[in-house]
Amino acid sequence: MDIPPPSDLPARVALVTAPMGVWGSFRTARRNLLGLIPEIATRQPIVSGRTGKRWHMVMDPEANRRILKDAVEDYPKSDVTKLILAPAIGQSLFIAEGQHWHWQRRAAAPAFSPRNVQALAPVMTAAAERAAGRIAAQAGRAADLHQEMVAATFEVISDVTFSGSEAFDRAAVHRAIDAYIAQTARVSFLDIVGAPMWVPRPGRLTSGPAMREMKRVADMAIEGRRQSGPRHPPDLLDLLLDGEDPETRRRMNTAELRDNLLTFIVAGHETTALTLAWALYLLAFDEGVQDRARTEAAGILGDRAATAADLPALPYLRQIVDESLRLYPPAAFLSRTARKPDRLCGREVRPGDTVMLPIYALHRNHLLWRDPDRFDPSRFADARAIDRFAYLPFGAGPRICIGASFALQEAVIILATLVARFRFRRVPGRTPDPVLILTLRPEGGVWLEVERI
Ligand code: HEM
To answer: Which atom number of ligand 1 is nearest to the Cα of residue 92?
Structure first.
């Protein structure tokens, strides 16, 4: 059902133009959740319907502001989100609500302060250097840059969470998380259409042992660090161990620390890898943009890898990352459940309605973006020109991604390092397909010819 894109537009998905029944939706969603988004969602502010449950898709900045900020208490995260993620990450920051969310957010916030995120940059620089080494070994042929970016971002997140713990088997945790995501993501559609709880969700039945093992290993690593004391400079585990809610003085116990650290790994590494993989695809798609990026990066870096101190001198690289997050937002679909009667874009919302924010359609909505399917990093040359609630790769309001500046810093450091050293070219016939299964992935990988500069 995917149409080959016209050659001047990067990869996109053919959105549906005719209504689908429950069964049609089910089949589509198992393959690609993007297939549930109707084409009119890129031309209208709201689309509503009923597939088992009443639902609304919202693509309007004012309504987004209401859902995510002004009336945030009335739009808790949907049961879907909680059902999928709770077995892996408990009642951690990502899914907790109310008081239990609030104290954790306050306790974790200092770990992500600008100063602490900057202090973690050397880990990102080192991962960029190692990724460049691996890619250099593949120069002269095609490489799957998506796999390379997954490896690089997993190194970063595991080094800043459980670095140096002997008990922490990086490869085993990576496998457990991948298996978990692969199993649960495919059944999430049952939850979206509101299938009753007794319908078996295969992922949830089989993910048990891998998950238990991962939690056991993480607990051992946390206990080990309590004994050994903080590292210098402190990593995310040290900062969280040190974290305290200034209002209640509450600190996280081992289980809470573990659930939050696993949350950072699950929420942080694949999303950042996807940002980088799509950015590299886009640079190969438009070699003019790539040349300009290389001029900027190589001029600043010479032969060395990028550091946090270089970021202010790399504005075009940052625009490329911003534009990649617009065209291929890794978290392409946010979902809430309405708690109270309300009106959004003049439409009636009833308690229990599912309110979806299809970020993919928001970022390609013709009412909000000029020529939305086109790759044009210069849209972000003046960040103030972008409506805050029209561009939501990290969400917004009190539940905005806590790791946004961490992810942006990492993405620019790695991308700048790579583009300064390599030329990336498209491989004919290997355009990646955007597929949404929990995150927006390039199906088939991002295969690019790599040439050393
Ligand atoms: C490019 C990379 C990333 C993207 C696109 C992304 C996207 C998002 C989005 C859209 C949300 C809000 C979800 C909602 O409102 O339903 C979110 C929340 C969150 N993200 Fe990220 N994220 C990224 C990287 C990270 C990193 C690196 C970390 C941690 C190290 C992280 C940790 C979290 C946490 C803990 C939350 C929940 C915050 C709360 O509810 O208080 N994310 N992320």
So the answer is: 35
